[in-house]
């Protein structure tokens, strides 16, 4: 009764993740997973609540620094570091969310952007972040006695975190709460007229999204041993929009596909194209918006439905 | 204000919704100007008036989607002038909107379930399976049947024809079992058959509840409404049953250019007369 149905893409995805390090460099996959989680968290807001946050880098960055600082300076256990980053991002999400949800549409996006910039400049000036140098040399530590400096050991922790968070997002989308979120996305005044306190639903969704974006940032610090200002920069907020749109906003797997594609492209192109990477990313964005607005997964689903429809009728 | 206060007839049912001196100003423009409205329990009450008379603004004030500038609103004897719109809905006054307001990309059944699930009290539970909502399916299907939509339950709402969307809206509103339903132009933009069906539907769901509706279609107003309030330029111009209102020269004049016959047709012999031509005062 309470089980969420296992779908074959989920099973195939997990199987693929388990064997991936045999063929792919695990750090690259971990990077993809961090960004995939970031994009999924973002998509919970954009795709399922209809809220375009343009400040999600603030949560990624804050958690990255918080976890890094906790592990390096306070020398807390790894798990505690991850939790601190996530909870910190959730708290920041509550503050920014409470202010932003008072506005709608483009004004909502602008408020989130402005507040995220505020966070960025605080992080730039604060002594513990070491400004442009970044917070270097964050130790990975151990988990249940397992040394995480081993890339393969960390890999399976990251996979576990990602799968857990992804499951939570899916569950949220399908939950009674998720139904109301979708209804808000579809027709907000109508939800109000049915007696729901829309602001509270939006705020909870915002905090959830911020917390999971924070988990992504915390995990990222663990993977790379450092946190930088780039994590909190508005470029990062833009990148997550691109990942989500490219993969398919409002689809469950779209952000994962989008994040995998963007991260891999950036990795490959950095060698051949150098600073042209940003131009190429821009071009991809333009093509995506003009040619396939539903994103890769969204277009795939639409195509599949058309095929089914043709067979039936 | 030329509005005639209601005669204190002992046979009148008690009021469910009352406004006193309701005013809404938008930067100097007065959209609603001192409206005293009394909606009585069990009635189907129509709010009519020419374009820009303030009908929809009135609706928005009553359901608290807009804050009144002045005046009071009482619902079931309680002052709701400063209540939040969702709080008003929870007290049993649920509205519909002028343009059809379904959740376009949810299935027809899920549209109704969104309203039904409020009673479960689990709507904040993001960790619960969606299947916990399956217990609502039987009631959802019942409601869909009551508006003739049971065959469309799995269809995505956006694919429904217009008239059916309005029916779905009605089913969603009914899911909350509201004491007072406010319908904003329920037959707007409909063909004749759809109008007849929705009219029948409204009549049917009005049992045990009160309905206040903005309506342009005089056939509907004459056919099913117990009481009519005419608004013009933000104020009450006339009030009474159909015969009284349609004979009022001020009302006829307010619909400028419309001859008495064009607007109201022949004097209806019965409240349920269908001889009245379905002339619409174009909105």
Q: Would you mind describing this structure in some detail?
A:
The complex is a heterodimer of chains A (313) and B (283). Chain A is mainly α. Chain A has a single domain (20-312), classed as Orthogonal Bundle (ABC transporter involved in vitamin B12 uptake, BtuC), CATH 1.10.3470. Chain A has 13 helices and two strands. In chain A, strands 1-2 form a two-stranded antiparallel ribbon. In chain A, a hairpin with a 2-residue loop joins β1 and β2 (146-147). In chain A, α2 runs parallel beside α6, α4 (78-100) crosses α5 and α6 packs antiparallel against α9. Chain A is globular and about 50 Å long. The model of chain A has no long low-confidence stretch (mean pLDDT 90). In chain B, the strands form two sheets. A six-stranded mixed beta sheet of chain B has the order 6-7-8-3-9-10. In chain B, α3 packs across α4 (137-146), α3 (108-116) packs parallel to α5 and α5 runs parallel beside α6. Chain B folds into two domains: 1-102 and 180-283, Rossmann fold (3-Layer(aba) Sandwich), CATH 3.40.50; 104-159. With 283 residues, chain B is an alpha/beta fold. The two termini of chain B are 24 Å apart. The radius of gyration of chain B is 19 Å and the shape is globular. Residues 1-6 and 265-283 of chain B have low confidence and may be disordered. Chain B has helices at residues 55-62, 85-90, 108-116, 137-146, 162-174, 192-205, 218-224, 242-247, 249-254, 260-264, and strands at 15-26, 29-40, 44-48, 70-75, 78-79, 93-95, 180-184, 210-214, 227-232, 235-240.
